[in-house]
Amino acid sequence: MVGTGVGAQNGILIKGGEPLEITHKIKTVMFDKTGTITHGVPKVMRMLILGDMVHLALKKVLAIVGTAEANSEHPLGMAVTKYCKEELGTEALGYCADFQAVPGCGINCKVSNIEAVLLKTEENVSLRNEENTYRTLTGEMSSGESSLIIDSRSEGAVAPQVYSVLIGNREWMKRNGVDISADVDDAMSNHEMKGQTAILVAIDGTLRGMIAIADTVKPEAALAVHTLKNMGVDVVLITGDNHKTAKAIATQVGIQKVFAQVLPSHKVAKVQELQDKGQKVAMVGDGVNDSPALAKADVGIAIGTGTDVAIEAADVVLIRNDLLDVVASIDLSKKTVWRIRINFVFALIYNLVGIPIAAGVFMPLGVVLEPWMGSAAMAASSVSVVVSSLLLKLYKKPDREKVEAMAHGQMKPLTPSQISVHFGLDDIRRKESPRLSVWDRISRVSQVSLSSLTSDRRSNHSETAEVQQDRLSLLMLGKDEEDDFL
């Protein structure tokens, strides 16, 4: 109870005594990327329109994409919606139906009423043009302001139409039969090498756009990873993002093992794999797609600003959204378990001394335990244990300045060659079979030779039987023909 209370005072909400006791045994910590290692507040850096803009203009693409992503709870979807609203200059969006979100892949939906959004945008443009015209004529326009008059006639109203929208990664497009050209793939790779996430937009089965989104790394992420490594804990980055973006982020924070392009079920399988090896695993995440892994891990750690599902599935919640609290939770667990062991020692001393005296072992020496002495010893034992436990309230989590001072000069940036990138669960699927000894190899070869020899004998025997049967059938046929002739 004291340990969980101390954790809450330091911004670490621990749900019960069991997670607090297990945390100090953690050997591997798995971090999600978006919203955990990064701030989770991505920003659209570039939007590239593909195809013929005459049939599908920029504003229409923005309205369609913004409407589709408005139903998404993913941070990337929220960033795209915000960008589209800012570019269109309106908060109004169209209607979205049959919305489907596939974690780790993308979204699929039907979008309509886009014409009303474009009409609203044209009204805003007209008002802006009138204001710019008036200010230009009256000379109120400052030198730093634009007097651009926007022609909105190119966005004329058309008949209501329903658009089928796909937004997601390469795998999502391939699943739905959308072709990706080499030029688009190269453009995505260029952004991914910078640590940005590139997603594709397909409208009515045709690739219409690419969106590059950037998310900055938390300033304490590299320090937290370095401190965990010094504590003897393995650190792994596991994300549904593409491998190039994941590798760029891992390079910045110092994580050497990366699992990219994984689904939520893959995260659960990876946790299970490490647990089967006898390791205690902690999963740190914030999203809905992280909740299965958070529930499966020995200790699930959720970011306080994450989704309600992730917070509910986790055993520990970091209220202050600080990754150094992962280090603090492990340190607090160690201090709590150490205090529990000290309490056992105190209780054991009273029992080791009091029980023999109460049994009369030292009676020949004149040492007798009176009833009031037993009561006093029992009370003293309880008081000592309680006081020892309350001393845990003096605990202070590792100070950031102190941790930075200890890590000064030791944190060295990684090179891309030092990072091991895995796709999904490829390391599980490609497990090497155990090497056979020389005797096992000889036995295996002899068994194969014996089986082949047996099969050859059977085949020869069957061929001989077939030949004899053919000869017998010919003799019978000749006899029948002779009988017919007679």
Please give a structural write-up.
The structure is a single chain. 51% of the residues lie in helices and 16% in strands. The protein is α/β, with parallel strands linked by helices and 486 residues long. Strands 1-13-12-11-2-9-10-14 form an eight-stranded mixed sheet, sandwiched between helices. Strands 3-8-7-6-5-4 form a six-stranded antiparallel sheet. Strand 12, helix 13 and strand 13 (316-318) form a beta-alpha-beta unit. Helix 14 (324-358) runs antiparallel to helix 15 (371-390). The relative contact order is 0.13.
Condensed summary:
With 486 residues, the protein is of the alpha/beta class. It has helices spanning 2-9, 17-22, 33-37, 58-69, 75-88, 114-138, 170-175, 182-193, 221-230, 243-253, 264-276, 291-296, 308-313, 324-358, 371-390, 400-407, 426-429, 438-485; strands at residues 12-14, 28-31, 43-49, 95-102, 106-112, 163-168, 197-203, 206-214, 234-238, 257-260, 281-285, 299-303, 316-318, 420-423.
Sheet with the most strands: spatial strand order: 1-13-12-11-2-9-10-14
Which segments are poorly predicted (pLDDT under 50) over 5 or more consecutive residues? 140-158, 430-439, 461-486
Counted beta strands: 14
Q: Quick check: average pLDDT?
A: 78
- Classify the helix fraction into a percent range: 40-55%
Shape: elongated
Measured distance between first and last alpha carbons: 112 Å
Global Rg: 35 Å
Major sheet: 8 strands, mixed
Structural class: alpha/beta
Beta-strand content estimate: 15-25%
Number of helices: 18
